[in-house]
Amino acid sequence: MKQFEYTIKDPIGLHARPAGMLAKQCKNYAPSVVSVCKGEKSADCTRLMAVMALGIKCGDTVVFRVENGDEEDTAASLKEYCENNL
Amino acid sequence: MFFNRKSKFTPEPGTLYAITGGRTVKLENVNDDVFSQKILGDGIAFYSDDGIVCAPCDGKVGMIAETGHAIGITTADGAEIIIHIGIDTAEQGGKGFKTYIKEGESVSAGQKLVAFDRKMLTDKGYDLVIPLLISDAETYAEIAVCAEKSVKVKEPVVRYSKEKSPGKEEK
Questions:
Q1: A52 alpha carbon, distance to own chain's centre
Q2: Predicted pLDDT at B54
Q3: Residue of A4, A10, A15, A69 marked catalytic
Q4: How many C-beta atoms surround the C-beta of residue B151 within 10 A?
Q5: B contacts of A22 (beta carbons < 8 Å)
Q6: Which pLDDT band, with edges at 50, 70 and 90, does A11 fall under?
Q7: For residues A64-80, average pLDDT
Q8: Which stretches within B58-167 are classed as H helix?
Q9: How big is the A-B interface in CB pairs under 8 Å?
């Protein structure tokens, strides 16, 4: 398992549009499974409603967790994606 | 005429009903890539005549945005539905939206979920199209939507099925 922290910069937070784009991106990482954790709660990033239910806002620090597949590669790519898009 | 319309209405599984009185718009014609390219899911969109959004099916509220402009419902048969009121309306931070339900609450088809201030939001220049999406669309072999037309709440607009309907599978 690989994980990293990220602080959301998108002004509307991880909501419909950014959450949808993230879900699309994370589907490309299969068999790696990516989850996003806010405090005690976490959601599979490909499950839009679960991600949106976390109510992640701009300025929130979340943890992205990568399991299975090439974890190293996926985490690196995801980190880059976050920095460019979230 | 002989029956009370309300008690007569029984939602069918695999069906989503119109969430507002108004007209339907194909997702392809929504002026935002994230919807028209079905990135958030497959379904249909609406323009509302009265600014009232109702549940498309029986189910449970899985998510309500703090801003009131987006709602997620898990249907009684397990589909994940997202309703998104207007494009970029999240910027309003909840202004102009009033929600009538709570997260975790059970709702029935046609129940009022949200009211929004059409005039105020239109005056601010927002496109108030309302996509109704099945966000786990890849789970379904077939999602059929109705044509662009005028609709009333509880009119069937989307059917989804894990199996292809007979006759369509092969050429």
A1: 11
A2: 98
A3: A15
A4: 21
A5: none
A6: confident
A7: 95
A8: 118-123
A9: 50
Q: Which residues lie below 8 Å from residue A39, measured CB to CB, with a gap of 6+? A: none
Look at B22 and B1; give whichever has higher pLDDT: B22
- Asked if the Cβ–Cβ distance from A49 to B62 is below 8 Å, we say yes
Instruction: Label residue B171 exposed, middle or buried (CB < 10 Å: 0-12, 13-18, 19+).
Output: exposed
pTM, rounded to two decimals: 0.89
Q: Rounded to whole angstroms, what are the CA distances from B113 to A4, B54, B61, B110, B157?
A: 37, 5, 10, 9, 18
- Residue holding tokens 């909501």? A15
Cβ of B80 within 8 Å of Cβ of A17? The answer is no
Strands (E), chain B: 15-17, 22-26, 42-48, 52-54, 59-64, 70-75, 80-84, 97-99, 106-107, 112-116, 130-134, 142-145, 150-151, 156-161
By C-alpha distance, the chain A residue nearest B104 is A53
CA distance readout (Å), B57 to A62, B6, B133: 33, 14, 12
Annotated active-site residue in B38, B69, B84, B154: B84
- Closest chain B CA to residue A16: B40
More confident residue, B165 or A11: A11
Q: Judge whether B69 counts as a catalytic residue.
A: no
Give the pair of three-digit tokens for residue A21: 């784009």
Q: Do B66 and A12 touch (CB under 8 A)?
A: no
Q: Which residues of B touch A53 (CB under 8 A)?
A: 62-63, 72, 103
Distance from CA of B167 to the nearest CA of A (A): 31
